[in-house]
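About this split. The held-out portion is used to measure sequence recovery: a designer receives only the structure tokens and must propose an amino acid at every position. Recovery is the fraction of positions where the proposal matches the reference. Here is one held-out target exactly as it appears in the evaluation file.
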């Protein structure tokens, strides 16, 4: 429920009173379980990020081309957005705030985020080596583009919307891996 309140009000504006009210309880009862809204943010972010890193490692371990791994990873990311809504929204929206925090848990979150990014770069590097991805584009820029494409969905995607997470993942994969322009000599119907 805290993730819903953080999404609606923003972490900075949300209070434990808001969360307690949504749970139909009082703040004192909520304090029995959590010490602060920062603790709730940690729970929200840590659980989702741990699952996403594990999913990325599983995709990376597949016997597939780099391009196929990227496609599978995009599917995993969109499925995570769907399963973990609005937790993923809160993580993406509040990442800059988390990275500036001096809480004891922020370094762990940053390390997990870096691990996820390393996995993506390794998939891109594999794709270059196996010939399934271009070699003329910088991997660091390509990984940033991939994160930009997928992570921006937090601004417009909601479970049950017009397009399923699988359809969105297919479209994002096609755009990232093949582009949006028609191949030369191909005329759309």
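Reference sequence for scoring:
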């Amino acid at each position: 429920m805290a993730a819903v309140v953080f999404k609606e009000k923003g972490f900075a504006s949300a209070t434990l009173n808001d969360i307690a009210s949504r749970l139909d309880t009082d703040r004192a009862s909520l304090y029995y379980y959590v010490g602060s809204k920062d603790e709730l943010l940690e729970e929200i972010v840590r659980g989702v990020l741990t699952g996403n890193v594990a999913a990325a490692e599983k995709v990376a371990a597949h016997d597939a081309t780099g391009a196929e791994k990227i496609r599978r990873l995009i599917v995993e990311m969109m499925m995570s957005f769907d399963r973990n809504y609005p937790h993923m929204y809160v993580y993406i929206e509040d990442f800059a705030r988390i990275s500036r925090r001096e809480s004891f848990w922020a370094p762990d979150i940053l390390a997990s985020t870096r691990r996820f990014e390393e996995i993506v770069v390794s998939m891109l590097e594999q794709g270059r080596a196996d010939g399934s991805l271009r070699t003329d584009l910088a991997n660091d820029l390509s990984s940033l583009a991939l994160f930009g494409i997928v992570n921006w969905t937090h601004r417009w995607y909601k479970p049950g919307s017009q397009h399923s997470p699988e359809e969105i993942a297919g479209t994002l994969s096609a755009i990232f891996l093949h582009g949006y322009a028609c191949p030369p000599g191909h005329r759309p119907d």
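Annotator remark: The domain at 42-178 is CATH 1.10.357.10 (Tetracycline Repressor; domain 2).
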